[in-house]
Amino acid sequence: MSFQAYLDAVETKTGLTPRRLLEIAHEKGFDETTKATPIVAWLAEDYGLGRGHAMAMVHVITKGPQISDKHVGSGGTHSDPTNELWLDGKASNPNA
């Protein structure tokens, strides 16, 4: 599953775009200095997300939408089309 596919699944499970979840996370005081554990706990408790999906959001919350070029266009299971994750909803993703 690509990184973007994890974020798309988060949207399906929560009904919120990754961008909106990022905004809520910041409202709760989560940022680049926050450890993964409290973010994962919040996402599990409030939205029922499992660890894998929550960890995708942890990356976005703590590191932003940029990902490593390692898997971009690799053709593998985790291949993403770009190194910039789309946070504004899967229906509007120009790289879908």
Number of helices: 4
Shape: globular
As a percent range, the share of strand residues is under 5%
Q: pLDDT under 50 segments (min length 5)?
A: none
**How many β-strands, per DSSP?**
0
Q: Structural class of the helices, strands and pairings? A: mainly alpha
Largest sheet: none
Rg, nearest Å: 13 Å
DSSP helix fraction: 40-55%
Mean pLDDT metric:
93
Distance between the termini: 14 Å
**How do the SSEs run, as a string of H and E?**
HHHH
Layout of helices and strands, plus pairs?
Elements: H1 3-14, H2 18-27, H3 36-47, H4 51-63
Helix pairs in contact: 1-4, 3-4
Question: Can you give a write-up of this model?
Answer:
This protein has 96 residues and is mainly alpha-helical. It has a domain at 3-68. The protein has 4 helices and no strands. It has helices at residues 3-14, 18-27, 36-47, 51-63. Helix 1 (3-14) packs across helix 4 (51-63) and helix 3 crosses helix 4. The protein is globular, with a radius of gyration of 13 Å. The two termini are 14 Å apart.
Features:
single chain, 96 residues, mainly alpha
Structure at a glance:
By secondary structure, the protein is mostly helical.
